[in-house]
Write a structure and sequence with these properties.
The structure is a single chain. This protein is mostly helical. It is 79% helix and 0% strand. It contains 4 helices and no strands. Helix 1 runs antiparallel to helix 3, helix 1 runs parallel beside helix 4 (68-92) and helix 3 packs antiparallel against helix 4 (68-92).
Length: 95
């Protein structure tokens, strides 16, 4: 195995992980009800789904994982998963 092959496999792994994170965040954002977003004070459903959807499309169309646009959308997906998703879960939990 050469260094170039190792770099290629690492790049592919990073690409797949980033694609998975963005895909999960987008699908999760779509599944929450529209009313939950303002109730949790985390923006609107349209803003999150459009932003996360654009990130997913950008990841598919620009398959280089370390471009600035892919990194920015990956950070947005992580912000959604770390901050917005728990707040939405708290608002929509069944009692």
């Amino acid at each position: 195995m050469t260094v170039y092959a190792l770099e290629g496999y690492t790049s592919l792994l990073v690409l797949l992980v980033m694609l998975g994170v963005k895909g999960f965040a987008f699908i999760n954002a779509v599944l929450y009800p529209t009313e939950a977003y303002p109730a949790s004070s985390r923006g609107t459903k349209a803003a999150w789904t459009i932003g996360l959807g654009l990130g997913l499309v950008a990841q598919i169309l620009i398959p280089t994982p370390l471009t600035l646009i892919n990194l920015a959308f990956t950070i947005a997906a992580f912000v959604y998963l770390a901050d917005t998703r728990p707040a939405l879960a708290e608002v929509t939990q069944r009692r």
